[in-house]
Amino acid sequence: MEPMNNRMTDLDFSPPEGLTVSLWRSLLLNLIDRVSPERLPPLQLTSKPVDVGISAGDLVALPWYRTIFSNLADVISPEILPPLQLESTPVDVGELVGDDLAHGWWHSLMGGLRDRLSPEKLPALELTSRPVAAFGADASLQILDWSSLLATPKVFLPDAPRDTAAVAALPEAAPAPAEPAATAPSPLLLAVRMQLGRDLGRTRFRRRIWIGLAAAEAVFLLVVLFKFQ
After folding, report:
1. pLDDT band at 210 (very low <50, low <70, confident <90, very high)
2. CB count, 10 Å around CB of 100?
3. How many angstroms separate the CA atoms of 56 and 119, rounded?
4. The pLDDT value given to residue 1
5. Distance CA 147, CA 74 (A)
6. Strand, helix or coil at 64?
7. Which of 81, 95, 107, 159 has its CA 20 to 30 A from that of 117?
8. Which pTM does this prediction carry?
């Protein structure tokens, strides 16, 4: 067998050559393979086959009496397997969630009372960062100020001087533009508006017809269902 590294480096993810073959050529090649197939040498296995027992397809194809006898044999004389050998060190994760949920309600009640009367003593928490003032966070949640989160000294810069001359010389308000004179509506717009109104009226009429038909069909189905039930 070839090493795994060589096989991984020789991987070719390009599309197969059959994708670029024309339809007529592919049809001709299929006919040639059907009439005169290529004679390939017998397959030579370079690896040792592994006995996996009966496959799932063969197991499903077995008759019913074979499976009954096999089940009886497994019950009367089960197969003795060698003990399991663990190659890793097991880690104690405590009680699993499934096992905890499988207990009765009294188990959780007793556990709650035990934790209430004699809570587990945990070691003191070691903080690696400087605690931040909560500003009464036990009563309400507030957003902390950036000044309380910064450890550097606070520097207050003076305000920039304001330009008094620019403030004094404000431009005068521009006069309001005169309102345009009312113009007569265009005859084309009136015609389009009338046509749109007619289309909306026809749409509402068709909607009422379809709603009435659907309601009548629903009533008919209900009558048939309760009458012939």
Report:
1. very high
2. 12
3. 54
4. 45
5. 75
6. helix
7. 95
8. 0.21
Residue located via tokens 């009294």: 106
Token pair belonging to 80: 């003795």
What are the structure tokens assigned to 212, written together? 């009435």
User: What are 40's two structure tokens?
Assistant: 């390939």
Task: For residue 89, give the 3-state DSSP assignment.
Answer: coil
Task: Measure the CA–CA gap between 143 and 134, rounded to whole angstroms.
Answer: 9
Question: Position of tokens 């008094």?
Answer: 164
The first and second tokens of residue 161, run together, are 């001087």
Which ranges in the chain belong to alpha helices (H)? 4-9, 23-35, 56-61, 64-76, 97-101, 105-117, 146-149, 164-168, 187-227
CA 31 to chain centre: 47
Residue-level length of the chain = 229
Q: Residue with structure tokens 């508006």?
A: 193
pLDDT in tens, 116-150: 898 888 888 887 777 666 555 555 555 656 666 66
DSSP state of 20: G
- 169 or 187, which is more confident: 187
* Per-residue tokens: 195: 């046509």
Q: 155: number of CA atoms within 13 Å, CB side?
A: 2
